Amino acid sequence: MLSPPEGAAFDHPSSILYYRVADIQAAVTELEGRGARFENRPNLVARMPDHVLWMAFLRDSEGTRWSC
What we know:
The protein is α+β, with helices and mostly antiparallel strands. It has a domain at 38-68. The protein is built from 1 helix and 5 strands, in the order αβββββ. The chain has one helix at 24-33; strands spanning 37-38, 43-47, 52-55, 57-59, 65-67. The strands form 2 sheets. The protein has a 3-stranded antiparallel sheet with strand order 1-4-5, covered by helices on one side. A two-stranded antiparallel sheet has the order 2-3. The model has no long low-confidence stretch (mean pLDDT 83).
């Protein structure tokens, strides 16, 4: 997915990462246990033919903001 930044706060080099996981809540728990700080809980954004797509924003242990 490529799109222009939605505002100045998002106008910086970054990437959106997509992961396929069996259990979204277990994945969140695992990432939090490794130091990730979620800015929001995963939200359902699309139902696809073979999976559902969730999106969340988090910060890693160095404070970098990620969309995933």
